[in-house]
């Protein structure tokens, strides 16, 4: 029996989950040699929200962080989280932009691309996975875990087989909400191990207190690697702590032999960083959220919506709104809840409770209903689809959403030249997702990026009907709501 491999997420998901993605490259560097020497399977150092947050709040050009961390951790493979056709943004981009992003990241040393899609529509993973393969790097095909009447162990296993056929070099079960119970984790991992030849990995969060036990069950089922972090950027809404997992595996035939002294050294160092990021960390007693289990929604979504309901003076509607979530999910084809679908479904549930079902239909929810995010796990309710078409004036689509996008790199290059900015691939791909934020880092003074009191993690502001501003992880999105 091979020991289980630990991948370490402290430089990405650890602080994304517990400190609003605010760890600066400079705060990471002193501990990089220790992290690099432990022998983790991979270090997750980039992707997810780190690119948006690094640009927006820390004034860092994303590829500079990658170069710096590559140099600081030269021995271990680097890994990133990649939202398929959305790259690290919130919408679908043209294939040539996705390919350029993958190639550029590969050139800067990214080794493993973890590719997922919020709807588990494998068509949205195809372009990224084949670009990663062509670049000679590893593509982890990722399955987003969710529970619903149409999600079964067999279907998750089938998706794993599809991703293997597509050329993935590993399959990841990604449980972003920490909702997978241990025995179900066991069955999915066992099913994948029995049916695919490539390594099987598991990523969860300890949000509901199930994470470490689900890892244990997955290790019994033969999972090749799991993601761990290091306290204080571990447990709770982040990954289980590495030292805790080692202790849990005492006498287990698959217990790995990572240096626990080195892990203590990392923990001692990170305590200082955690204290510096105090304005962004969560109170300890809010770390495990059993409401997430009751409502089967991500923990982050619960805390965001508690704030939003308060702002909308709907605190007394908490139960009603969360009871509405499964209804909205069902009508929209039982989509998983992960950025951006968790925010879209939650907002629609709130609108339904406030104004009556589908009296206000958000443009994003209409786009899901019409296929503009991809194929949903179950068909969208035909009446809801028809309502979305009528209200938006758009036709439903069945094709892969990016098939409607024209190549975009040449236009991006032209725009950057006109603005007097560098027009290399690095700047083009970042500008495609975050145009204003990229311009800002060249215009704004450094003092603009100094630590300040954070905006609430998520909020919805606006008066009554009409225009709302939806804040997702500190990023403001305009939501225009039309009455039907
Ligand atoms: Co995660």
Q: What brief labels describe this structure?
A:
484 residues, 45% helix, 21 helices, four-stranded antiparallel sheet, eight-stranded parallel sheet, disordered C terminus, binds cobalt (II) ion, alpha/beta, 12 strands, globular
Please provide a brief summary of the model.
This protein is of the alpha/beta class. The chain has helices at 10-18, 25-28, 32-37, 50-58, 62-72, 95-107, 123-134, 153-165, 182-195, 211-220, 242-248, 260-276, 291-295, 299-311, 318-331, 341-355, 363-369, 382-392, 409-418, 425-433, 435-443, and strands at 5-8, 42-47, 77-82, 112-115, 138-144, 170-175, 200-204, 225-228, 360-361, 458-461, 466-472, 475-483.
Unreliably modeled segments: 455-468, 471-475, 479-484
The total count of strands amounts to: 12
Radius of gyration: 21 Å
Question: The biggest beta sheet, please?
Answer: 8 strands, parallel
Q: Describe the strand arrangement of the main beta sheet, using strand numbers.
A: 1-8-7-6-5-4-3-2
The number of helical elements comes to: 21
Mean pLDDT: 91
Give the structural class: alpha/beta
Bound small molecules, by name, code or SMILES, are:
cobalt (II) ion
Strand proportion: 5-15%
Distance between the termini: 60 Å
Outline: globular
Helix-residue proportion: 40-55%
């Amino acid at each position: 029996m091979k020991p289980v491999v630990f991948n370490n997420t402290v430089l990405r998901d650890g602080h994304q989950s517990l400190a609003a993605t605010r760890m600066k490259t400079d705060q990471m560097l002193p501990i990089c040699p220790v992290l690099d020497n432990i022998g983790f399977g991979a270090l997750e150092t980039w992707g997810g929200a780190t690119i948006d947050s690094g640009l927006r709040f820390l004034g860092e050009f994303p590829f500079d962080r990658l170069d710096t961390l590559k140099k600081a951790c030269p021995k271990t493979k680097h890994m990133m989280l990649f939202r398929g056709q959305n790259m690290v943004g919130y919408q679908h981009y043209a294939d040539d932009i996705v390919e350029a992003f993958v190639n550029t990241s590969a050139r800067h040393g990214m080794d493993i691309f973890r590719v997922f899609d919020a709807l588990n529509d494998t068509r949205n993973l195809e372009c990224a996975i084949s670009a990663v393969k062509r670049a000679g790097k590893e593509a982890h095909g990722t399955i987003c875990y969710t529970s619903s009447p149409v999600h079964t162990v067999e279907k998750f296993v089938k998706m794993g087989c599809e991703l293997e056929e597509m050329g993935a070099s590993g399959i990841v079960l990604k449980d972003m909400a920490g909702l997978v119970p241990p025995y179900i984790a066991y069955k999915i991992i066992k099913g994948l191990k029995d049916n695919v030849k490539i390594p099987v990995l598991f990523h969860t969060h300890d949000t509901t207190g199930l994470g470490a036990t689900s890892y244990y069950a997955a290790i019994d089922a033969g999972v090749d690697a799991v993601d761990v972090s290091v306290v204080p950027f571990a447990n709770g809404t982040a990954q289980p702590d590495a030292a805790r997992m080692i202790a849990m595996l005492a006498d287990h035939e698959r217990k790995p032999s990572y240096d626990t002294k080195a892990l203590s050294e990392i923990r001692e160092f990170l305590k200082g960083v955690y204290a510096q990021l105090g304005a962004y960390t969560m109170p300890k007693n809010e770390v495990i959220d059993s409401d997430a289990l009751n409502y089967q929604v991500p923990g982050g979504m619960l805390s965001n919506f508690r704030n939003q309901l308060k702002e909308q003076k709907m605190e007394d509607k908490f139960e009603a709104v969360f009871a509405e979530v499964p209804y909205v999910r069902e009508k929209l084809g039982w989509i998983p809840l992960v950025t951006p679908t968790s925010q879209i479904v939650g907002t629609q549930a709130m609108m339904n409770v406030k104004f009556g079902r589908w009296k206000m239909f958000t443009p994003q929810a209409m786009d899901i209903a019409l296929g503009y995010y991809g194929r949903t796990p179950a068909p969208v309710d035909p009446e809801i689809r028809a309502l979305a078409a009528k209200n938006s004036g758009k036709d439903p689509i069945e094709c892969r959403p990016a098939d409607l996008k024209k190549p975009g790199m040449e236009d991006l290059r032209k725009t950057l030249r006109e603005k007097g900015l560098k027009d290399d691939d690095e700047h083009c791909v970042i500008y495609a997702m975050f145009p204003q934020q990229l311009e800002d880092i060249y215009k704004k003074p450094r003092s603009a990026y100094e630590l300040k009191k954070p905006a609430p993690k998520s909020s919805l502001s606006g008066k009554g009907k009409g225009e709302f501003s939806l804040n997702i992880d500190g990023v403001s999105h305009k939501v225009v709501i039309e009455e039907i």
